[in-house]
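Quick one, C-alpha cells below. Sequence please?
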C-alpha cells in the first residue's frame, strides 16, 4: 500500500467558533453537512452515505477549537482534523481541514472537502 500524503485546506466561514464547533463535533451537526446520517457511541462515530457506513474514532477534541478523527478501516497513522482558527486582528473565522489521501486521489479528496464545506456554509448561512 502506498503511503498516504497529508494535505491541508482552509475555508473562511462566517460563523462564531462556538456554532461552527457544534457542526463539527456532534452527530446531529455532522449529519447536516458531512454525511447523510451520523451516530455515535462514545468515541466511535458511524458515518452513513447512500446506505454505506464507515466508522471513525474520535481521537481528540477541544471545545470550540478542533476535532480529530481516524477511520477505523485505516491501519496507518492517517486521520482527518477540522480546526477552527480565529484571526486575532480581523476576527475572521477559518476552518482548517487536514486529511490524507493516496497520491492519485488528492485532487478528488480536495474537491470532496470543498463540496462538503460548501454544504456546511449553506447550513450556517455563510457566504
Amino acid at each position: 500500500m502506498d503511503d498516504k500524503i497529508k494535505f491541508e485546506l482552509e475555508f473562511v466561514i462566517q460563523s462564531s467558533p462556538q456554532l461552527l464547533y457544534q457542526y463539527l463535533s456532534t452527530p446531529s451537526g455532522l449529519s447536516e453537512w458531512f454525511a447523510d446520517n451520523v451516530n455515535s457511541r462514545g468515541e466511535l462515530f458511524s458515518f452513513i452515505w447512500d446506505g454505506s457506513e464507515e466508522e471513525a474514532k474520535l481521537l481528540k477534541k477541544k471545545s470550540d477549537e478542533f476535532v480529530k478523527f481516524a477511520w477505523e478501516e485505516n491501519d496507518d497513522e492517517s486521520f482527518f482534523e477540522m480546526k477552527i482558527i480565529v484571526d486575532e486582528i480581523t476576527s475572521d473565522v477559518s476552518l482548517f481541514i487536514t486529511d490524507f489521501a493516496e497520491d492519485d486521489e488528492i485532487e478528488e479528496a480536495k474537491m470532496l472537502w470543498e463540496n462538503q464545506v460548501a454544504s456546511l456554509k449553506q447550513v450556517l448561512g455563510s457566504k
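The CA atoms of residues 46 and 55 lie 4 Å apart. The radius of gyration is 14 Å.
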